Amino acid sequence: MTLFSKELSFRWSDLDPNFHVRHSAYYDFGAQHRIEILESLGLTMKVLRSQNFGPILFKEECVFRKEIMLSDKIVMHTKISKMRPDASRWSIVHEFINDEDKLCAIITVDGAWMDTKLRKIANPTPEIAMDAIRNFPKTNDFLEL
């Protein structure tokens, strides 16, 4: 199974007045990685636009465990932790791991697929979305909803 990991590079603008990565930067890194993963699985912006659907989030939270500084070496691992059998609802986690293999933060997002014409949850789930999301690596405690 494909692993979705990304080495992060922090910018000065990612820092807060305490000289560690600001809280909202974590969410930006997670969002960018999810879009890159979807693109790699064939769900490009062009495909999403042409088929009139896209991902939507209901909840996004981050648990901060260890501060991250500008020069820290961090790898973000992205996995799916929960999913309905038809891939209509799902939860994705992003783990921020330092070079000492310590968990610095974990983002969890709960989402679904939205029909962008109707502005409602897509029903049924587009086949291409089901195929893509099923290719995500799963967490050790993966739960089928």
Automatic annotation (TrEMBL):
Its EC number is 3.1.2.-. It comes from Flavobacterium zhoui. This is Acyl-CoA thioesterase. GO terms for molecular function: hydrolase activity. InterPro entries: 4-hydroxybenzoyl-CoA_TE, HotDog_dom_sf. It is an enzyme of class 3 (hydrolase). Keywords: Hydrolase. It holds the Pfam family 4HBT_2.
